[in-house]
Write a structure and sequence with these properties.
Residues 163-288 form the NADPH-dependent reductive aminase-like C-terminal domain. InterPro entries: 6PGD_dom2, 6PGDH_NADP-bd, HIBADH-related, HIBADH-related_NP60_sf, NAD(P)-bd_dom_sf, RedAm-like_C. It holds the Pfam family NAD_binding_2. Residues 5-161 form the 6-phosphogluconate dehydrogenase NADP-binding domain. By secondary structure, the chain is of the alpha/beta class. It folds into two domains: 5-161, 3-Layer(aba) Sandwich (Rossmann fold); 198-289, N-(1-d-carboxylethyl)-l-norvaline Dehydrogenase, domain 2 (Orthogonal Bundle), CATH 1.10.1040. Helix content is 50%, strand content 13%. It has helices at residues 12-23, 39-42, 52-57, 69-76, 98-110, 140-145, 147-153, 166-195, 199-226, 239-255, 261-275; strands at 5-8, 28-31, 47-48, 61-64, 89-92, 114-120, 133-138, 156-161. It has an eight-stranded mixed beta sheet, with helices on both faces. The longest helix has 30 residues, at 166-195. The protein is elongated. It starts with a strand and ends in an 18-residue tail after the last helix.
Length: 293
Amino acid sequence: MKPSISVLGTGRMGSALARALLQAGYRTTVWNRTTAKAEPLAALGATVAPSVRQAIDAAEIIIINVSDYGATSALLRSGDVAPGLRGKLIVELTSGTPEGARETSRWAEAQGARYIDGAILATPDFIGTDAGTILLSGAPDPFSENADVFRALGGNVQHIGTEPGLANALDSAVLALMWGALFGGLHAIAVCRAEGIDLGELGRQWTATAPVIEGLVADLIKRTQAGRFESDAETLSSISPHYGAFHHLKDLMSARAIDRTVVDGYDAIFRRAIAAGHLHDDFAALSQFTGET
């Protein structure tokens, strides 16, 4: 028999989670601070709970997708709600920090609940599809026992470890990759606008060079994992040519009054590595200096 599920928080992502569960045939209850945001789900078969406690009482599995762990705490830790969690499975899909996940896990277990923490690596349109990616961490049994529930949320839902903070930590790492690309895109757009280059041409060159960049990132991760920082026969690029080209970018940005806040941060990492004698080492040697300030 399929478990009953409640979704707390029906913004764009929470609504996508609820729709995926409904489409998979799960009895789904939803709650949202602003009730009107939950009402469209009622037309799809969801029950709209008037209170958090009633949503919890209606389900065996509680999926939470609110703004942050502070909001989760405000919902669950009130005197009338917390006692209702005993015996339930809490699936926290709110973005947060690894330490926030660990603390929430400890609190949930103290209430007699089981707990899995997760990070959604997808936009709402991917939820319920084969490409929907969600990382989960915490006790493995609740994951394996409810594999069909998680499969309904996405075809690439993974349990990545027993440490509760792991999903959020890896989420932050992946977001760092994403924001590096997006902020790099902003700088590229600024340079093109300043130099009168059509942005369509930038798009074409990105398409052409993206596989090269993906290969460089994959190589950086592989070499850092192996601790292979010295240049060798398999080095794709050492720090020296990167830093030479980087100077040209800085000079252009200065000449065109383009904001250099982010690239000045890159410069600080370059300088620390070069001062330590790594100018001619593989680019991966920079990974030894990103933890410094």
